[in-house]
Amino acid sequence: MAKTKTTYTGENVIDFINSYVDNEQKKADSFSLIKLLQEWSGEEAKMFGPTIIGFGNYHYKYASGHEGDAPVLGFSPRKAAFSLYVYSHTEKSKLLLADLGKFKMGKACIYVKKLSDIDINILQKLSLESIKYISEHHECSCRTK
Questions:
Q1: Is 56 left (phi over 0), alpha (psi -120 to 50) or beta?
Q2: d(CA 128, CA 47)
Q3: Cα 37 to Cα 1, 25, 46, 85, 129, distances in angstroms
Q4: Burial level of 43, CB count in 10 A (0-12/13-18/19+)?
Q5: From CA 121, how far away is CA 99, in angstroms rounded?
Q6: Is the Cβ–Cβ distance between 21 and 13 less than 8 Å?
Q7: pLDDT in tens, 107-141
Q8: Residue 82: in which H helix or E strand, if any?
Q9: Beta bridge partners of residue 54, listed in sequence order
Q10: What span, in angstroms and rounded, lies between the C-alpha atoms of 48 and 74?
């Protein structure tokens, strides 16, 4: 069975951003995201795997027997765009996407180039909806998509 990439590593989040992110705007946006996601989740930022900054965690177990831990909310400041792990596939979230701003959608994440491209109030609503979904279902909605 494949090893999950989203395990808690104990690495320092600030050190990661300062060494991994070479664009000053992306670095500033990363620190802003940390502040916002900490506020919304009530959890401290922690490194999950080599490049994901996560907030909170939950244990999941699928019918296949695969299980692990994952952050409730998270992001990664990748070179091309931020990967935001704040989305749950609910009717409310689908409606909110219409007002988010400039982004691309993956299976389980939202890709944005910079924070100024999106509406932070909508991002907060998406994040809170995702926290609610995960607390009720104990899994990412990407499994049901």
A1: left
A2: 21
A3: 32, 18, 11, 11, 13
A4: middle
A5: 10
A6: no
A7: 879 999 999 999 999 999 999 999 999 988 766 65
A8: strand 82-85
A9: 46, 74
A10: 9
Radius of gyration (C-alpha) of the chain in whole angstroms:
15
The amino acid occupying position 141 is S
Q: What is the pLDDT of residues 15-65, one digit of tens each?
A: 999 999 999 999 999 999 999 999 999 999 999 989 999 999 888 777 777
Tokens of 65: 């027997």
For the entire predicted model, the pTM comes to 0.90
> Which tokens is 60 given?
């999941």
| DSSP strand pairing (73-77 vs 110-112) | unpaired
- The b-or-e profile of 69-86 (16+ CB within 10 A means b, else e) is ebbbbbbbbeeebbbbbb
3-state secondary structure of 131: helix
